[in-house]
From TrEMBL:
GO biological process, one term: cell-matrix adhesion
Protein name (database record): Thyroglobulin type-1 domain-containing protein
Every Thyroglobulin type-1 domain range: 6-82
Disulfide bond annotation, renumbered to this chain: 44-51
Chief location: secreted
Organism: Poecilia mexicana
Cited InterPro entries: Dev_reg/Prot_inhib, Thyroglobulin_1, Thyroglobulin_1_sf
Lineage summary: Eukaryota, Metazoa, Chordata, Craniata, Vertebrata
Gene Ontology CC annotation, any one: extracellular space
Domain of life: Eukaryota
Subcellular location: Secreted
Pfam families: Thyroglobulin_1
Length: 91
């Protein structure tokens, strides 16, 4: 069975040092990759609650960052903005 090489997102995620219990140190941002190893269009920092959109290289798209405690409809709107941004980028 052929195993594909790891993507940038997977390598970045895997490079984060974990403690003996297998958990990353508190406060560390861990990138989220999809099943193909690509960056998810919306990234969130688990410790801070901030979320933002990224391009295919994992770079933050300016103006997409939202703070913690956002209302659910704002989060849905934010995710739609990420998806639309990605669609526009691919077009």
């Amino acid at each position: 069975m052929f195993e594909r090489p790891k993507t940038h997102c997977e390598r970045y995620r895997d490079s984060i040092q974990t403690s003996s219990d297998g958990l990353p140190p508190p406060g560390i941002y861990i990138p989220q990759c999809d099943e193909n190893g690509l960056y998810l269009s919306q990234q969130c920092h688990g410790s801070t609650g901030y979320c933002w959109c990224v391009n295919s290289s994992g770079q933050e798209r300016i103006g997409t960052r939202t703070g913690p405690g956002s209302l659910r409809n704002l989060i849905i709107s934010h995710l739609t903005k990420c998806i639309n941004c990605c669609v526009l980028t691919l077009a």
